[in-house]
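mind reviewing this stuff:

——
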Amino acid sequence: MRIAFKLLEAEVEFSAVRAQGAGGQNVNKVSSAMHLRFDVPASSLPDALKARVLALADSRITGDGVIIIKAQQHRSQEQNRAAALARLQELLEAAALVPRVR
């Protein structure tokens, strides 16, 4: 069974930061990495899904229930933004999958 939900992009907060690690001279000048912040308790997700997400033992979830994802694999902000959003969607879909009681 799966809990149905719709992720509203208006509830997701993005900020551009500088990427870490090697990357040549451009990495020091351009903020191409993206930080995604998603406040689970303040979101419009169903209450059952909120409880399942907050119960996860995931290091990306803060004590206040905010999911923080950093994406820096790509060279452009838009690609990193899409990658962070996809990872958030995967995390929520994994939590929405309720195992069958046997």
The beta strands are 12-17, 33-39, 66-71. The two ends are 13 Å apart (CA to CA). The chain is about 25% helix and 20% strand. The helical segments are 47-54, 77-96.
